[in-house]
Amino acid sequence: MLGRGKILVTGGAGFIGSALVWALNRRGYDNILISDVLGTSEKWRNLVPLQFRDYMEADDLLAAVEARHSHLEDIAAVFHLGACSATTETDASYLIRNNFEYSKKLASWALSHDARFVYASSAATYGALEDGLTEERGLHTLRPLNMYGYSKHLFDQHALAGGYANRITGLKYFNIFGPNEDHKGDMRSMVHKAFHQVQTTGRIKLFKSFRPEFPDGGQRRDFLYVKDAVAMTIHLAEDSSRCGLFNVGSGIAHSWLDLAHAVFAALGREPEIDFIDMPEALRGKYQYFTQADISRLQATGYREPVTPLRDAVADYIQNYLQHDRRLGDEAITS
């Protein structure tokens, strides 16, 4: 499917998008059109080591799609990863335009041009659920907790109601971490934040628990290394029969303490952890346990082992964060 023509990656300068381009390059693909909004951030640095044919700003791409521009006629696959991913974004109108309306238009174009369409949904669509996080749950039963999650949920629902959910592939990414996330500000992973906390203070801060069945730092998440996330993404894209919604996670829940200890281990330091109060505004929306059911992904024949958390954190810190490297810089030697 991916070798039939040009590959479009929206959000291709962002975190998962640039990692996807890196993974495609490693598989021999460079006939790639990247679209993003570079703005004033540093995410342009993610593009420097990558191989691709062209770049378009997101507004220009949308205009070309709406005009049915011939420049796009040779696109055979679309990875739509571009979106506002800030879970704290409060401008609902902006999220609707950027995450929902844009997705509808791009999906419509891709389907009308017989192009493979793979898009980023989100585990945030599951809302406060802490068990049974499976794609088999009816979309009408889900209650996202923030506007970001709801904007993703809206498109999942639209594809289902429009009768084309079984012709496209939606990816419910869980807690992804790894290289190329530096530009994400407060939306960076805890690994990235913890690394810098240790560098500056020697300590890591974690939230106290406000539920008796979870000790402080014992709240658990499904953490997945970005290299595994893009491998799963490409696997699903390669066969047009792999359609519908798929969880993209490790299938294993680890505690924040597990994550913090992995960071200290990667730095060769003894753990020094402080527990701080969770902000009042967050307590009612905080999930204490997430674990992806990845049986549907595995049923498609995906057999690659998930990188163990400690190994993934060590690779990220020792080969990227400590050297300020991006994916694609692996061959650089000092």
Short précis:
With about 325 residues, the chain is an alpha/beta fold.
Number of strands: 13
**What percentage of amino acids are in beta strands?**
15-25%
Enumerate how many helices there are, as a single number: 10
Extract low-pLDDT stretches.
none
Proportion of helical residues: 25-40%
What is the CATH homologous superfamily assignment of one domain?
NAD(P)-binding Rossmann-like Domain
Main CATH class of one domain:
Alpha Beta
Termini separation comes to: 39 Å
Rg, Cα atoms, Å: 19 Å
Sheet of most strands:
7 strands, parallel
Strand order, sheet with most strands? 3-2-1-4-5-6-11
Q: Tell me, briefly, the overall form.
A: globular
Order of helices and strands: EHEEHEHEHEEHEEEHEEHEHHH
The secondary structure category is alpha/beta
Average of per-residue pLDDT values: 94
Q: Which fold does the CATH topology of one domain refer to?
A: Rossmann fold
CATH architecture of one domain: 3-Layer(aba) Sandwich
Explain how this protein is built.
The chain has 334 residues and is an alpha/beta fold. The protein has a domain at 6-178 and 223-250 and 291-306: Rossmann fold (3-Layer(aba) Sandwich). It has ten helices and 13 strands. The protein has helices at residues 15-26, 58-66, 92-112, 147-161, 190-201, 226-237, 256-267, 280-283, 295-299, 309-319, and strands at 6-10, 32-36, 54-57, 75-80, 116-120, 169-173, 175-177, 204-207, 220-221, 223-225, 244-248, 254-255, 273-276. A seven-stranded parallel beta sheet has the order 3-2-1-4-5-6-11, sandwiched between helices. The chain has a two-stranded parallel ribbon with strand order 7-10. Strands 8-13 form a two-stranded parallel ribbon. β5, α4 (147-161) and β6 (169-173) form a beta-alpha-beta unit. The longest helix is centred in the N-terminal third of the chain and has 21 residues, at 92-112. The model has no long low-confidence stretch (mean pLDDT 94).
